[in-house]
Amino acid sequence: MENNFINDAFEEGKELQKKLFDREGINAHKTIQLFSYMFTEALRVRDPRVISYQLVRFYQNFENKQIPQFFINVLKDESALSQIGSAFLLGLNSHNESSSETENIQKNQFEEVVNIKNSKIRKINI
User: Fold this and answer.
1) CB proximity list for 91: less than 8 A, separation 6 or greater
2) Phi, psi of 60 (to 5 degrees)
């Protein structure tokens, strides 16, 4: 049963990542990064109250989206909560290979960095 929760948590994270990128575009990185940091810290200290608080705050970003039952079911089991919370974060932070928009943005950012470095090199050589 716990294995199903882990898979469900991973898929939930991926689904929320997609919803965030659909709504916020590239700014979703910042939202995911901030939540991931705070949720990881909550998992580290193993305090179900803090974990619940972080989940409530994060899920407020989504209309008509409830905190999944698997989180509620494991709030009293610290080891299961840590595993499920980690699976959720892995899904949330996973790379979506079908997201060509994100790939194009990253490619453009890389090209900008290369152009900046090349222009600095030209200035130094002059």
Assistant:
1) 9, 10, 11, 12, 13, 14, 15, 16, 17
2) -70, -15
| Alpha-carbon distances of 71 from 24, 42, 84, rounded to whole Å | 25, 14, 8
59-5-88 Cα angle (round to 5) = 45
How does 17-35 read in b/e, with b if 16+ C-beta sit within 10 Å? Answer: beebbeeeeeebbebbeeb
Q: What is the mean pLDDT of residues 59-77?
A: 86
pLDDT in tens, 80-119: 888 899 999 999 998 765 455 555 555 565 566 556 655 6
What are the structure tokens assigned to 118, written together? 């090349």
CA distances 118 to 10, 79, 106, Å, are 41, 50, 18
Contact status, residue 86 vs residue 96, Cβ threshold 8 Å: no
Q: What are the phi and psi torsion angles at 97 (to 5°)?
A: -65, -25
User: In the numeric block, which tokens belong to residue 119?
Assistant: 């222009």
